[in-house]
Amino acid sequence: MKIISMIPARYSASRFPGKLMKDLGGKTVIRCTYEATVATNLFDDVFVVTDSGIIYDEIVNHGGKAIMSVKSHDCGSDRIAEAVEHLDVDIVINVQGDEPFTDKESLEKLIAVFKDDYDKNIDLASLMVHITDLDEINNSNTVKVIVDQTDFALYFSRSPIPYPREKEAGVRYFKHKGVYAFRKQAILDFYKLPMQSLEASEKLEQLRYLEYGKRIKMVETNVQGVEIDTPEDLERAKKLWK
């Protein structure tokens, strides 16, 4: 089974433009993410996929591998689908460019989903982490996920889900970490499906799968890390990086 990692990276992020080229411990955020992914030694290959010549040059000039997107894309999965269409791969792991704290243990758990799926019933898997901080639960930049009894995703939202009407119900809240694992055909199928209203409203690409009846296997991890969505996140990442 050939497994690669693709790191979608665009320069003009709406909330924090140019964030992937910001300094983190003497290197850019995107370079830190790329090198952390390579260092896991879990993949046959690792690529940054980007629409930015600046990001492309940053990776290639430091000995990495990058692919320039041909078309314009609204989300990372579309960008990856274009890049992998003609590659000989079985499983594609999508690591977000703004997650420099990508860790080996979490990625191994994702890969194990497919190694244990002998009948190939699972097309897509992703990570979630238990959160308890109320500010984080209510933060719209923190994407929450709720799952069924077998850990398949029921819904993702920027809002707190479920709504805590009954405070003593014992609900656990989970943050969705934007790391996905796809069978190659699943991501190619995703690329052909038009965006629907839920994805458009929440600006969450994973909702496209749910809207079309696809199932997403969620895997719990204990690694929190920092996703860099705002300048404040970058400052927190700098402290943690040290």
Secondary structure layout plus pairing:
Blueprint: E1 3-9, E2 23-24, E3 27-28, H1 29-39, E4 45-50, H2 53-60, E5 66-68, H3 76-84, E6 91-94, H4 104-115, E7 124-131, H5 134-138, E8 144-147, E9 153-157, E10 173-183, H6 184-192, H7 197-202, H8 206-211, E11 217-220, H9 231-241
Parallel strand pairs: 1-4, 1-6, 4-5, 7-11
Antiparallel strand pairs: 2-3, 6-10, 7-10, 8-9, 8-10
Explain what you see:
Strand 2 and strand 3 form a beta hairpin. The chain is of the alpha/beta class. Helix 3 (76-84) packs across helix 6 (184-192). It is globular and about 55 Å long. The longest helix is centred in the middle third of the chain and has 12 residues, at 104-115. The protein has helices spanning 29-39, 53-60, 76-84, 104-115, 134-138, 184-192, 197-202, 206-211, 231-241, and strands at residues 3-9, 23-24, 27-28, 45-50, 66-68, 91-94, 124-131, 144-147, 153-157, 173-183, 217-220. The protein is built from 9 helices and 11 strands.
